[in-house]
């Protein structure tokens, strides 16, 4: 059948390539080839998941082309109605399956919606190890160099005990704690988990931590070591012989530091995602059989990380608010002190003005009976002007002294005969 190129583009981006393949009973690979020939872009892996989770996505626009319609090779024995019936039956089986899983695990992923929980449980049930010859995830391929370089420069002796706690500086993820022989196995386990997380809308960081539900989730992976009695090397035996000889002649000689035990990697892995919860190889089971549980554990840890992050952010907000309130109180106190001191200074100037006026009145009463001389009248006028200059309620500008800054303290306002003028 023939279909408009634009219609095919819209249907693929509104549902998925798989859905359109089932709808028209076109083999998936054939539909892929048709889209490539007609230059119809296909949604990237995880696109539908991000849409369903409400995450931002970018839709690749349909390019301009002379091709207006494409031909779909549909089998005559399969009509559209039958395809729809098959799709509906498949959806019913999936819903029934996830419901049973939800009933079996009521205490898992309780922080998610029902549909999100079912998606993850279904993915956990269907997860399978990637093929041994499959290309590893690009983040793993790039990270291999980090581990290789660190291990090459590791200063610990051969057969020394190796764990993250035995290093003064924390080594990179996987470095120093997994043997070279076991690293490829670890990379395949991670590759399987990473691809499943990405299909659910997550992503992988350069340091091989995961972004799940917008939270950074990490895991610890170590290889167990067997403890065996240390066998002296030729060099150590020579050091002991030399020590015994030196001890007879010198009291200060010290015994060489030779460890009692050797630690040998045994290929058994231990993976920790949540604190004090481990997945490990045993005599009956291996970690590869626990990938589904590990996938669920990664999502459980994302909730732990979210709660811890929000608690930290809340604590930071609380401290910042307390600091803001303390600073606000300090500023209020400082302003209040400044205003109070200014008030005192104003009151002292006003008091000085009142004393000057009282004194002028007393002088005026003394001399008024005999009649004020021109000189005394001029002095009284001058003194009253000085009182007005001191008085902050009048704040008269003096011809020579300028404007008095009443709010300043007495020391700052004291008149000094420095020979300098205000103008």
Looking at this protein, list some descriptive labels.
three-stranded antiparallel beta sheet, 3 domains
Q: What does the secondary structure layout of this molecule look like, with pairings?
A:
Elements: E1 2-4, H1 5-14, H2 17-23, H3 28-37, H4 47-52, E2 69-71, H5 80-104, H6 114-126, H7 138-152, H8 180-199, E3 203-204, E4 210-212, E5 215-217, E6 220-229, H9 234-249, E7 261-272, E8 278-280, H10 291-368, H11 374-390, H12 410-413
Antiparallel strand pairs: 1-2, 3-4, 4-5, 6-7, 7-8
Descriptive report:
The chain is mainly alpha-helical and 423 residues long. It folds into three domains: 2-78, no CATH class; 116-315, no CATH class; 337-413. Helices cover 52% and strands 9% of the residues. It contains twelve helices and eight strands. The chain has helices spanning 5-14, 17-23, 28-37, 47-52, 80-104, 114-126, 138-152, 180-199, 234-249, 291-368, 374-390, 410-413; strands at residues 2-4, 69-71, 203-204, 210-212, 215-217, 220-229, 261-272, 278-280. The strands form three sheets. A three-stranded antiparallel β-sheet has the order 3-4-5, with helices on one face. The termini are far apart.
